[in-house]
Amino acid sequence: MPITKHEIIKLIFYILSAVFFIYLLLLIPGGQPQIKNTLEAKPFEWNQDSLWVELQARFSEIRKTKCDQLFYLMHKGMSEFEVLLNDIEGPNLISPGAPVFDKIEQKLFETAPIFGVCPEEAHIYIRNFNRLRYLLKKQSQGWDMNSTEARHQVYRLLYGGRMAVEEIILQDPSDKYDILLTGSRDAASDTPSKIIHGVRVHSGDILVSRGGAPTSALIARGNDYPGNFSHVALVHIDDSDENNGSVSIIEAHIEQGVAISSVDQYLKDIKFRIMILRLRSDHPVLLRDPMMPHKAATAALKRAKTEHIPYDFEMDYKNHDKLFCSEVASAEYKTLGVTIWKGLSTISSPGITSWLAAFGVRHFQTQEPSDLEYDPQLTIVAEWRDTATLFKDHVDNAVTDTMLEGANAGDPLKYRWYLLPVARLLKGWSLIKNYFNGIGPIPEGMSARAALQNDWYSKRHSYLAGKVLEKSEQFKSDYGYSPPYWELVKMAGEAKKQADR
After folding, report:
1. Do 373 and 407 fall into the same domain?
2. Do 152 and 238 fall within a single domain?
3. Which of 216, 254, 359, 379 satisfies CB 3.0 to 4.6 Å to 211 for a cystine?
4. Which of 138, 154, 176 is the last residue in one of the domains?
5. What is the biggest distance separating any 2 CA atoms in the chain, rounded to whole angstroms?
6. Are both 341 and 236 inside the same structural domain?
């Protein structure tokens, strides 16, 4: 019996009603995670806005003078700096609160504007900063790196010095800073090695890097000591005859969990900077077993080859069933007797905690990539900076800092609520693909709502960054030099106010 037109209309109505009902069910948002952060920690604050204004004013004034007339001031400042560094060199342990460190910080900042005007002499400043970094990490071997005094001192000098160096670099249009070797005296290693992009890399070396995605900036900045790195990976070099020194890089990706990459695959993703860290050659465990880092890398490689290891959105560095990027290195080193991240990272700001909790974070004392730079057990072998994108890195930081300031003031982490049913269907498809070892559109371990919040965050960040880049071009046109970081933060604040209207 043929179906009548009326019956067809009824069938279509029932189907559409069912779809609409399912859509409404999938639209139910569910509660946001209510995380109570009980950490007794506080975010680091510079509280030196007047100093930044003074340095910029000094830079503007010095620009009126030719570099050959500033030669004496540059070398006088560096000579005084070297004398201060001599005071912290040697076997005697100096406490982190010693006045000499305040003098070093003052000299580090007050001489930077001169080299910013004459960046062709920047190699002198960079050389002395590298020496400071080496000596400070040597001194901090005897400090409690979980104490506030030690953490503040190391951060002020190493992060502050890094920012000063990069402000100088950004005033130089040349590309001569792509590779900055530190000439570390504690970088000797017996593990298999290979030269990669001009640097001898050893098996067991740790790579810390900064990605170009907005969420990379969030990882780098969203903690009590905002930094410059968002990702950690472990290097394995096969010394067997048949593999002829093949290089594998073990890393954890949000999209797929732990994976093995070649050098080309690792570098394919946008990276504003990459630093090579290596266990100090005088480390007691290394003196007993020089091949320990290679053994750690071999164990990590074997596990990555033999099992699927999901990404750990909770950032639980103690449980290794799932791994976030920092754990890829720390878990295997820990097994062999070395606890890296002497100073654990903390996330205590309520707004930042709330936003990160929405993305799945549950542990707010953890191992952040940026803080590994300050670990006194590790020596800095080399650092690559992509000078073409270094300014974009600073813009991303400024926008992120501004957005996180808004989070602490009560700004919600938004999402397009009407797309939640679609996201949940995509999540279901992702779970099926994950079951068959595939990669779905929504990462394993990430909820549909978190995926939409991530999308909103990334688009908001990109929009503000675009506005800051426009304002910075106008600044450069008006004043003749690239705006320093604190000016970028002001621009980001202005852009956010305009977007919030």
Report:
1. no
2. no
3. 216
4. 176
5. 103
6. yes
Compute the distance between CA of residue 501 and CA of residue 492 in angstroms, rounded to an integer.
Answer: 15
Of 67, 170, 90, give the one whose Cα is nearest residue 385.
170
Q: How many domains does the chain have?
A: 3
Query: Are 216 and 260 within one domain?
Result: yes
- Location of structure tokens 């999938």: 26
Distance CA 2, CA 257 (A): 54
Give the Cα-Cα-Cα angle 251, 255, 261 (nearest 5 degrees).
35
Helices (H) and strands (E) in the chain, counts: 17, 11
Between the CA of residue 49 and those of 155, 350, 404, 405, 463, what are the distances in Å?
17, 24, 19, 16, 27
Contact yes or no for 142/98 (Cβ under 8 A): no
pLDDT tens digit sequence for 491-501: 999 999 999 98
Residues 171 and 191 in one domain: no
Same domain, 450 and 431: yes
From 160, 176, 192, the end of a domain falls on 176
**375 and 407 inside one domain:** no
In this structure, the dihedral spanned by the alpha carbons of residues 142, 147, 149 and 151, taken in order and rounded to 10 degrees, is 80
For residue 241, count CB atoms less than 10 angstroms from its CB and return exposed for 0-12, middle for 13-18, buried for 19 or more. Answer: exposed
pLDDT score for 29: 78
Residue 322 contacts residue 221 (beta carbons within 8 Å): no
What CA–CA distance (Å, rounded) separates 424 from 199?
46
Those residues of the chain that have pLDDT short of 70 are: 1-2, 23, 31-34, 36-38, 173-184, 241-243
pLDDT at position 121, please? Answer: 87
Phi-psi map region of 380: left, alpha, beta (phi>0 left; psi -120 to 50 alpha): beta
C-alpha to C-alpha distances, 124 to 237, 310, 475, nearest whole angstrom: 35, 46, 28
CA distances from 430 to 6, 22, 384, 421, 483 (A): 39, 19, 36, 14, 44
Alpha helices by DSSP H, 170-306 = 214-221, 263-268, 284-288, 292-306
Helix, coil or strand: residue 318 = coil
In a domain, 17, yes or no: no
Cα→Cα distances 181→7, 275, 379, Å: 78, 10, 12
The one-letter amino acid at 453: Q
Task: Report how far apart, in Å, the C-alpha atoms of 480 and of each of 63, 431, 473, 475, 483 are.
Answer: 10, 53, 10, 8, 9
Element (DSSP H or E) covering residue 208: strand 206-211
Q: Is residue 11 part of a domain?
A: no
For residue 447, the enclosing domain spans 400-500
Residue 323 DSSP code: B
Are 336 and 193 contacting, i.e. CB atoms less than 8 angstroms apart? Answer: no
What is d(CA 463, CA 465) in angstroms, rounded to the nearest whole number?
Answer: 5
Which residue has 């920047």 as its token pair? Answer: 122
* Nearest to 361, CA basis, from 353, 351, 369, 371: 353
Task: Supply the pTM of this predicted model.
Answer: 0.92
